[in-house]
Amino acid sequence: MVEVETFVYEKKNEMLQLIEQLVNIDSGSYYKKGVDQVGSILKEKYEELGFVVDVKEEKEFGNNMVIQHKNAKDPKIILVAHMDTVFPEGTVANRPFHIEGSRAYGPGVVDMKASQVELIYAIKALQKIDSKSVENIQIILNGDEEIGSITSRPLIEKHSIGKEYALIMEPARKDGSLVTARRGGGRYEIVVKGVAAHSGIEPEKGRSAIEELAYKIIQLHKLNDHEKGISVNVGIIEGGSSVNTVSANAVAHVDIRISEMEQASYLEDKIKEICSTTVVSGTEIHLEGAINRPPMVFNEKTEQLLHIIEDVGGEIGLKVKNTATGGGGDASFTSATGVATVDGLGPVGGNAHSEEEYLEIDTLPERTLLLAKTIKRLS
């Protein structure tokens, strides 16, 4: 495997050039043109390596792709990586890819355009030693992970069935840790309709939507149980038309997080119950949303997979750590189908989703080597 290590480290600058190309394409989840442009570049790279790319066309969001080697028969490893970012069109023009010291910066540089490049070069490294393990992988590249994998979730779940291992390419944590557990969750929108009235002349004729929503917010926040990993947060509220008008409308946007799937039905029932009646007579409530991401649970299968990756890390002098995170991700979908799943196999970085998002450049070759050798070991 010395040849593989030499290859990976020699290709660091070449990898950075491809990362720069991808980062300098706006590919926010709602900017289909940009996501598909990234997809076209990646499609070409995989086809050059002898892979077949099945593009799943989408009308509203970026296309998804299912990729495997032309000689693959029944691959047992699924890898998932997303092409979209959280940044809208025009972001690149304001802050394109750039390097400062040992870090690279730019929109989506670590979440997860560097991971896309890492995956391609891990495959190249395996092919350098004529490894047939590249025939044992199936890759899903999706274009809507940052908005809940609306179109790609069924695709991920479908192709997870029958697999033995799932390697998810989200970036490693700031300390280099892999991710072995994620909380599940969902979003709700509560719309309250009231009756407008002048608050000075005839307030008695009004029915305040904001007042009703305030009661609901208090009840919702009482559902929090942080010891059990249940989080209910009303993060955005909107309402009213002017300060001297009894509000005829109010809206709350609610974020839900769970640690166990059994908590989902409990919370869904409680939220529906809270929104089924009103305190302020004359107001109406409309509830939309659902808990749409199952939690990724650290189970025996995942623990066994983690130990294999730890052992591979030891071979290349890399101490592999793991952690749990409250954020959601596509690992939840593979885990929920019963596949041993480990996330965070991308390079190390931090401050994702912000203007300060960065990639630790020196982790590119080591994480590429870790991924390549893990695929070989699992095959």
Automatic annotation (TrEMBL):
Annotated GO MF terms: carboxypeptidase activity; metal ion binding
InterPro entries reported for this sequence: Bact_exopeptidase_dim_dom, Pept_M20_glutamate_carboxypep, Peptidase_M20, Peptidase_M20_dimer, Peptidase_M20A
Coiled-coil segments: none
UniProt keyword terms in alphabetical order: Carboxypeptidase, Hydrolase, Metal-binding, Protease
Active site annotation, chain numbering: 84, 145
Pfam families, A to Z: M20_dimer, Peptidase_M20
Name under which the protein is recorded: Carboxypeptidase
Signal peptide as annotated in the record: none
Species for this entry: Ureibacillus manganicus DSM 26584
Domain of life: Bacteria
Stretches assigned to the Peptidase M20 dimerisation domain: 180-279
CDD domains: M20_CPDG2 (cd03885)
